[in-house]
Amino acid sequence: MSKLPKQHKFLDLSDYGRPIAKAIANALKNTSITPIHVTISFIIAGLFGVYCVVQGYYWLAAFFLILKSILDAADGELARVKKQPSYTGRYLDSVADIILNAILFIAIAYITNAPWYLCVLAFFGLQLQGTLYNYYYVILRNKLNGDSTSRVFEKKTPIALEGEQQKYVNILFALYKFCYGIFDQIIYTLDRKASQSSLFPNWFMTAISTFGLGFQLLLIALMLNLNLKEFILPFFLLYTIMVFVFIAIRKLMF
């Protein structure tokens, strides 16, 4: 099952790894490998990427960061082709993402001798950007009856789906709320009525997909290899201004 009906798919700049992710999922469809195994593999790839950043192996860092993005898409694809959606996988994926993002930004701050407050603010901006993108994307998916494992409002612990245990859903949901609660609340406060709006047009979703984690990691990989590593943290801090721009566009036009 696709995340969106065919006629409403948009050019997602953060989802460049989807074709390879689908190929990986199809190759693993009839194996004993589960989506959770693929999630663990992207965690490992992300950690290798961070190690390469610290060691100054920027081409390798780029490889592992992009591989992480591809595998990040492959776990969901595998869940779809195996028809095994799970809240366990959904929350594990999100918790792993934010932890890896934090470690990556700490590594970038380390190699650039950036002040700690810049690292914290840039990380906060990065997560706020991603939260807005996910917020609008999940709203769109719910309106169009697409993939609904992700909910617009993550308020209550969901009931475990077939094949997963409630205790793991409870634990991972609690971790998710701890990691993402503040970002979800900020975005919801800024745009409470987004779920009541008309369908977001493709051009708008394409523009806001620059907030997607895949695109963010691609930018980091490029900046590392273009000798622009000192600008990574300031860029993501300043680009957070676009959160307010996109919200203003949404309120005025849709």
TrEMBL record:
Q: Which domain of life is it from?
A: Bacteria
Alphabetized UniProt keyword annotations: Membrane, Transferase, Transmembrane, Transmembrane helix
TM ranges:
32-51, 202-225, 231-249
Query: Does the record bear Transmembrane in its keywords?
Result: yes
What Gene Ontology biological process does one annotation of this record name? phospholipid biosynthetic process
GO CC terms: membrane
UniProt xrefs under Gene3D superfamilies = 1.20.120.1760
Output the Gene Ontology terms for molecular function. phosphotransferase activity, for other substituted phosphate groups
| Family (UniProt) | Belongs to the CDP-alcohol phosphatidyltransferase class-I family.
What protein am I looking at?
CDP-alcohol phosphatidyltransferase family protein
Give the species this sequence originates from: Aequorivita xiaoshiensis
